[in-house]
Amino acid sequence: MKFEEDVKLFPEFSQKWAEKRLAKEENKNQYPSPESIRSTRDWLVSLEPGSELYRKLDRVSWADAQKCQEKWHEALARKSAKMTEYGGKPDDVSPVLNLENGWRWVKLNSPESKDYEGNAMGHCVGQGSYDDDGSIIFSLRDKNNIPHITVQFNCERRIVIEIQGKGNTKPTQKYCDDIIKLYKEYDVQDYGKLINLFSYAQRNGEYIIGDNNILSCDKNTVFDYVKLNETSTITEFNYDVSGDLDIEGTQQLKIINGKVGGNLNARKTKLEKIFKDIKGNLDISYTTHFKELAVNVGGSVNGHSSHIENITKDIDGRLDISETKYFKFLDVKVGDNVDASNSNIERITQDIEGSLNISNTENFKSLDVTVGESVDASNSNIERITKDIEGSLNISGTRHLKILDINIGENLNARGSNIEKISKNIIGNLNISETEHFKELDVEVGRNVFATGSKVERITKNIRGNLELSKTKHFKELDATVGGNLDAEKSSIQEIKKDVGGSVNVAKTQNFKLLAVKVGDSVDARYSNLETITQNIPGNLNIDMTKNFKSLDVEVGKNVSARRCNLKTITKKIKGEIDTTQTQLLENYNNKVECQKSKLRM
After folding, report:
1. How far is CA 459 from CA 180, 244, 445, 467, 496, in A?
2. FRET label pair with 563: which of 236, 265, 500, 551, CA 20 to 30 Å apart?
3. How confident is the model over 523-561, as pLDDT tens digits?
4. What global pTM score does this model have?
5. 10 Å Cβ neighbour count for 242?
6. What is the CA radius of gyration of the chain?
7. Cα 333 to Cα 303: distance, rounded to the nearest angstrom
């Protein structure tokens, strides 16, 4: 009988623990003394819900509990000894509301009482800060007159200005009911401060504040909105919510067994199960205990950096499983985009309505489903793509994809990849910059081609847009029309056989000697070994620092920059300015070309 009575002395959350530990001590003929039991009980009562010891109490032995309670009582003794160091007058108060277990709300009556409160609580109520501002300071005191919560109240406006725990921290959930009682005592109607501190629900315009008050509602209650804060001690939520349910940061809630008519935010929680459908979006990002999603979600699902392993129902909106480590197979339909970047995904079996991101994945080898928009597989270990891509495809940085034999609806980015062959036309841009194994481009490209720093050797089809061949070492001859600009700076190009619709850049080339095709705009040949130009230039011409260009025998539609070069003669009209700084012309051409002397810089 004594054993059962002793167990009842302990707070409810610890009674099962106490029953096991006391039984074990009794079996060892070491049953604790009444003083030890009371001291342990007092320590357990002091534990903050959600604290590490509170959550891991089952692992604590009776012997370890004695060490904890002894340290706690020693800290209390030190605190009591410091009371005289706090200064002020701890007893210069007026009781305003008596609570359970000897706790009470008091009003601070003097500057000295505020000094004590500020020193004991570690905030700025004292030191004259609130002595003459017209507000009332309330303090929540325990049976030993130790303050736990400080409230600043404007009596004239009947509003709470500030609620502070120790060290200006937010009060925890266990103080919620006592604070609400103070609100009611002074008929405070503005709950703005409370809903920023504690869990609350809304129903028909009414606020229900605090875990206990929420759980006291009838089981058939349908809330309009619910927000459980990070200190909530609710472990199972069984109510329907017509709007949003926000439980972000809660550590105690394990199960949601009610319908959610709006969005469910379970980010950074230890939620384990959801049993009813979600009409809006679901956020389970950074969750560590949620393994399977087995309900319908009407909107999008954010499972970023979560421990999700399985999804069994189709998703109407987007799906984010990026940076997940345990999700391997996606076997459901997704109505919008899928982000699986940096994940351990291995297979997708259903078509994707929107875009797909599998960048930086190591285990995804083959894409065998249709993707309605773009695919980002950059820096992945993908080896095969067997279905057409409606949008753009990014395979930059891939090492195992060698041949691409699919249609691509927009752009292809293969920068820095090991791609070797492209067999279908590209509608948009093509980027094969810094590729090592791509030698020949023999498909049509609808826009621009970027081949900077690549080992491409041949292009056999016309380019409608711009062509970038800068820093290429193996490209010698261009036998395709370029509709836009040609950039071959620092390349090994030797010959251009077809007209260029835009500008030509052959700056810093060593082997390009003759420009004999039409150019639609400017020519940049600075620092090159260019010798001859045979077609008029509509735009600017730059032959700075050229050593072998001796005679300019074509018309130039705009400006010519011929600084520090070996140009000797100009025989055709220059419509713009000419800069021949540090260049010694052999012949004065002021009557041979239509160029004002004022525009000639020598």
Report:
1. 78, 57, 11, 10, 12
2. 500
3. 999 999 999 999 999 999 999 999 999 999 999 999 999
4. 0.76
5. 16
6. 39
7. 16
Q: For the chain, which residues make up each domain, given as ranges?
A: 2-84, 87-190, 503-602
| 3-class SS of residue 154 | strand
SS (H, E, C) 54-99: HHCHHHCCHHHHHHHHHHHHHHHHHHHHHHHHHCCCCCCEEEEEEC
Contact between 547 and 528 under an 8 Å Cβ cutoff? The reply is: no
> Residue type at 482?
V
What's the length of the chain? 602
* pLDDT band per the 50, 70, 90 thresholds, residue 315: very high
- Distance from C-alpha of 181 to C-alpha of 194, rounded to nearest angstrom: 12
Q: What is the pLDDT at residue 561?
A: 96
Q: If pLDDT is split at 50, 70 and 90, which confidence band does 67 have? A: very high
Residue range 475-502, pLDDT digits in tens: 999 999 999 999 999 999 999 999 999 9
Per-residue pLDDT for 126 more than 80? no
Q: What are phi and psi of 117, to 5 degrees?
A: -60, -45
Pairing state of beta strands 569-570 and 551-552?
A: parallel
Please report, for residues 53, 216, 329, the alpha-carbon distance to residue 324 in angstroms, rounded to integers and kept in the order given: 29, 38, 12
CB atoms within 10 A of CB 420: 15
Asked if residues 442 and 462 have their Cβ atoms less than 8 Å apart, the reply is no
The total of other beta-carbon atoms located within 10 Å of residue 331's CB is: 11
Rounded CA separation 184/177 (Å): 11
The predicted structure's pLDDT at residue 87: 53
Vertex 528 angle, CA 526 and 529, to 5°: 140
Q: What is the mean pLDDT of residues 36-64?
A: 87
Tell me the β-bridge partners of 274.
Answer: 256
Could you count the other beta carbons within 10 Å of the beta carbon of residue 165? 19
Which among 37, 113, 133, 119 has a CA at the least distance from the CA of 85?
A: 119
Mean pLDDT along residues 314-335: 96
- Helix axis angle for 62-86 and 111-121, nearest 10°, is 150
pLDDT in tens, 341-355: 999 999 999 999 999
> Which of 191, 143, 147 minimizes the C-alpha distance to 165?
147
Termini Cα distance of the chain: 113
Task: Sort strands 159-164 and 147-154 into parallel, antiparallel or unpaired.
Answer: antiparallel
Percent of the chain with pLDDT over 70: 93
| Beta-bridge partners for 482 | 463, 500
Using CB atoms within 10 A of its CB, is residue 535 exposed (0-12), middle (13-18) or buried (19+)? middle
Task: State the Cα–Cα distance between residues 207 and 120, nearest whole angstrom.
Answer: 32
Rounded Cα–Cα distance for residues 43 and 74 (Å): 11
- Contact at 8 Å (CB) between 455 and 475? no
Q: Please report, rounded to a whole number, the percentage of residues in the chain having pLDDT higher than 90.
A: 67
- If we measure between CA atoms, which residue out of 213, 232, 229, 233 comes closest to residue 221? 213
| 1 vs 18, higher pLDDT | 18
Q: Which two tokens stand for residue 113?
A: 């009482």
Q: Which amino acid is at 219?
A: K
Q: What is the pLDDT of residue 593?
A: 46
Distance CA 162, CA 231 (A): 19
The strand pairing partners of 421, in sequence order, are 403
